[in-house]
Amino acid sequence: MTEPADAAVRRAIPPVICYPTDTLPAPDMGLYARAREGMDKTGEVLVPPREARCFHVPAGHFFRIVSVEGPQVGDLNLWSARDLSERFYSGKTRALHGTHLTTGERMWSSFPHLRPMATITDDTLGWYGIDAFGGSVHDVIGTRCDPYTHRLLSGGDYHHCCHSNLTRALAAETGLALSEAELHVHDVLNVFMCTGFTRDTGQYFMKASPVRPGDHLEFFAEIDLLGALSACPGGDCGAEHSSDAAPCHPLLVETYRPAPGALDGWSPPARNGYPRSHGA
Ligand SMILES: [Zn+2]
Asked: What is the maximum alpha-carbon separation in the chain?
């Protein structure tokens, strides 16, 4: 294919940010800091390797995903505890905050709700930044490992992909049939996963996670949440997923009640105000 004469000029046009975030309502990180000082642990859920577990977090409480035993990636789904149709919207979160999330950034919910579900309040991997390969941690670019893509690429059936783990966990938690629960499973936040896009081919890559036991990612629940976390069969995702080959470790979910009185006057964010008339 021949290039047009002005190809270099067209390529040299500087990019503009699609969604400048200066008008995005900013989280009150000072308020969250006061609420997490003196917060009390209310419970924990251990997610076994190659399995998923559900957990509940009331609005105004915190939850942490903690690395225990060894480097392990977690695939996180979030729903409104009152309405499963309101769920984490990975794509719009990516459009607003970029490919990887850290402290001060938020997990946004699906249309027509589009409001913060959770705000990241602490990230012990915040030091990692963007490495020389363009990789970073906690991405919203991967979808989740799943048996359909695995069958497409490898031909076999593997039942402990994150998609299936999340489906079984949600079915067990809600009493929904597997076939119903599956439809509520959605694109994840890849907790602790180190990923990026190759500069030459633009392909999605992963590399061994820098997470170590004791690291955590902490969230403030903006609304009443039902969460599900899968301990990915890829382990630290340094080699392969969708098999039993990688060493895998459990992940711990801890929940915390805020310091008494620290959130006085705070209330969960309202649903998006667009009237849904769509110009009709
Ligand atoms: Zn996975």
From this structure: 68
pLDDT, mean of residues 164-168: 98
Q: Tell me, what DSSP letter sits at residue 23?
A: G
- Give the angle subtended at the CA of 73 by the CAs of 69 and 75, to the nearest 5°: 130
Q: Can you tell me the mean pLDDT for 210-239?
A: 96
User: What's the gap in Å between 225 CA and the centre of ligand 1?
Assistant: 22
Give 11's contacts (C-beta < 8 A, 6+ positions apart): none
pLDDT in tens, 135-165: 999 999 999 999 999 999 999 999 999 999 9
In degrees and rounded to multiples of 5, residue 121 shows phi and psi of: -110, -15
Span from the CA of 144 to the centroid of ligand 1 (angstroms): 5
* Sign of torsion over alpha carbons 7, 9, 14, 19: negative
CA 230 to centroid of ligand 1, rounded, Å: 7
- Ligand 1 center to residue 128 CA distance, Å? 21
| Ligand 1 center to 145 CA (angstroms) | 4
pTM of the predicted model as reported, rounded to 2 decimal places: 0.95
Q: How far is the CA of 220 from the centre of ligand 1 (A)?
A: 24
Using the mean position of ligand 1's atoms as its centre, give its distance from the Cα of residue 13 in Å.
38
Separate counts of helices (H) and strands (E) for the chain: 6, 13
How much of the chain exceeds pLDDT 90, in percent? 92
pLDDT of 244 above 90: no
Give the Å distance between the CA of 113 and the centre of ligand 1.
27
* Cα 235 to ligand 1 centroid, rounded to whole Å: 8
In the block, tokens 């992909």 appear at 161
Average of per-residue pLDDT across 228-234: 96
